[in-house]
Each structure stands twice: as structure tokens, then as C-alpha cells.
Amino acid sequence: MKLNYTLLLLLIGLSVFGQTTRKYSNEFMNIGVDAAALGMSNAVTSHTGDVNSGYWNPAGLVQLEDNELALMHSSYFANIANYNYIGYAMPLDDRSAVGISLIRFGVDDILDTTQLIDEQGNINYDRINLFSTADYGVTFSYARRLPIEGLNYGINAKVIRRVIGDFANSWGFGLDAGIQFQANNDWKFGFMARDITTTYNAWSIDEEKFEQISGAVEGQNQDLPETTEITLPKLELGISKSWVFHYDYSLLAAVNLNMRFAETNDIFSSSFASVAPALGFQFGYTDMVFLRAGVGNFQNELQIDNSEDLTFQPNFGVGFRYRGIQIDYAFTDIGDQSAALYSNVFSLKLDFSIFR
């Protein structure tokens, strides 16, 4: 019954592709969290099973054995933009778990030069102010084991807050749903539906400030922009398998298929949907030291001669776990093989069992 309800929500979301839909909306929520996952090119939908599952697939939260806390930081554009994440999750009992997380992507101390020139046409640097633009995403997660052995489900409720100084701000709300299934032979399967009802953002624009700058550049900024936007659903299907060699060595291989309901530059694209694969590996030693690699973000990039070149994003990561503390590092887009932003990502995960 719960699964039928989730599918109903998805169908409702797909039916409201109205005039305010955009291919890229609330994209800061798609960057990803946890350096361990980023090192595997985000191919973790099927096997994620810690505090970060609240982002990747909330169904994985039921694998928690104790309370967990996660932190992550990365920067872009030569440290101009900063991306920060904190997550906390806890098991309720042996069949269910909850979590909460906060993401902030922001650029601070931007120069506001809209009033640089005074009424007499003189440049006055004292009229320059500073402002910040920031996107916030708060996610509340719930997961539960189903009566079928190995089958779990999870649901996210997301609140989006976006602020552009004193010029404009918005509130948004959306839902995610995920499923995981583990077979007896170490195969794992995962399904994640993001923004299943579509995520709706309502903007509030300071019209007085808009009037002050609407005529600054002839032919531009003459009309107020749209005050509503809808984020379309995205689907992720994941499969993974793990092996153990000589007790001390382990290998995890995972693949994801990520689908958007829009025509993009993804390797498989149509007017109905676009699909991009991602592949990730993790090699472990004594469940303490980890090496990770992945490749994803396959895109058909249009060149200046109108030809298309296939680009991709290779990632690399390392991790170290001791008792309940895990530190991970990822370097994304090795060699600048794609148009994606490369970054050095660090994350920390703390299992509260170390305090018992």
C-alpha cells in the first residue's frame, strides 16, 4: 500500500510540468554530500547505509546501528563559493530510523555596485555595499524495514530556502522517496525518486530595489522575473555487489543510472527524458583503509564546429576509519575531463558508539 502511494505521488508530480518548470532548478541540492560517495562518482544509491543515506537514499538509514553525525566542506571558483553539509541520524528501533540534514551553498561578501553612480552621475565608492547569496536545504528523513526480508523504504521531506541579499528570497518544499533491496548473494538494488511531487519554490522580490536597477542597462532588467519555479522529478536506479578476499580485502562495485525528465546533453537523451550512467569502485583493507574511484557525468558537448565530443568526469577518493571515526577525501573531475567543477572535498563521520 505504501509503495502504491509513493507511485501515486510520482505520477501526480509528473502531471504538473507547468509553464514554470526549468531544466535546472535548485541545482545546489544535486551536488552531493560525503567525500566517500563523491569519490565513487555518486554511484551509491543501492548500498548507502549510514547517516548520509538521508541524502542518497533514505531507505539506507535502517542500516544504522547507532547515532551518527556527518560533516562536509568543499569550495568552488577559487574559494569564492562554499558548500557545507551537516547530517545527523539515529535508529528508532530495529526496524526504523530518522535523520535530519542541512546543506548550505553560498557566496558571501559580494560587492553591490547598483548605487555606485549617484544622482549627479558621479562615481562614489562610499555607496558600495556588501551582500550574500545563499541556498539552504533542510531534509527530514524517515526509513523503515518492510515485512519482506531485505526490503526497506525511506521518505524525505525537504524545505528549501534561497536568499539573494535584500533583493529576493524564496521558500520551497518537496518530497523524495527511496527503496533498497539486498539479496542473499551480496547483490544490492536501490531506487531513488527525487522531487516526486515536484519541488515548488515561491519567490518574493523587493520591487523597490528592482525599480532602482531596472533601467541600469538599456534593454535589460525591464520586467520582473517569474516568482515561481518547479523542480522536475529525477529518478536514480542503482545496483552494486561486494566481494571479500582473504578476510582482509574487500571490493565494492556499483553502477547508477540517473534520469531527468528533460532533454539535456546526457549521453542518452530524448525529448521525454535523459539518462546518464555512473560507475564507482571501492577497495578496502581490514575495513579501515579505503581507495575509491569512479566515472560519471557523461555528456555530449557541442564543439565550435557543431560536432559533439563525449566528455566524462573521473573522480578519486581515499578514506580512513578507526573505531567510530571516519575521515574521507575526494578529488572530483581529475584532469578536468568534463565541464563540471572540480573540487577537493573533505568529510567527517562520527559513530556515537565510541562514547559507550
Can you put this structure into words, describing what you see?
The chain is mostly beta strands and 356 residues long. Helix content is 8%, strand content 52%. It is built from four helices and 18 strands. It has a 14-stranded antiparallel β-barrel. The radius of gyration is 22 Å and the shape is globular. It starts with a helix and ends in a 5-residue tail after the last strand. 34% of the residues are buried.
Kindly list the characteristics that best describe this protein.
disordered N terminus; 356 residues; mainly beta; globular; 4 helices; 14-stranded antiparallel beta barrel
Structural topology:
Blueprint: H1 2-14, E1 21-22, H2 35-39, H3 53-56, E2 68-76, E3 81-91, E4 96-112, E5 129-145, E6 151-164, E7 168-182, E8 187-194, E9 199-205, H4 207-213, E10 228-231, E11 234-245, E12 249-260, E13 268-269, E14 274-285, E15 289-302, E16 308-322, E17 325-331, E18 344-351
Parallel strand pairs: 1-10
Antiparallel strand pairs: 2-3, 2-18, 3-4, 4-5, 5-6, 6-7, 7-8, 7-9, 8-11, 9-10, 11-12, 12-14, 13-14, 14-15, 15-16, 16-17, 17-18
Quick recap:
The protein has 356 residues and is mainly beta. 8% of the residues lie in helices and 52% in strands. It contains four helices and 18 strands.
How widely separated are the two ends?
39 Å
Q: What letter string, H or E per element, gives the SSE order?
A: HEHHEEEEEEEEHEEEEEEEEE
Helix content: under 10%
Spatial order of strands in the largest sheet: 2-3-4-5-6-7-8-11-12-14-15-16-17-18
**How many whole angstroms does the radius of gyration measure?**
22 Å
The total of helices stands at 4
- State the total count of DSSP E strands: 18
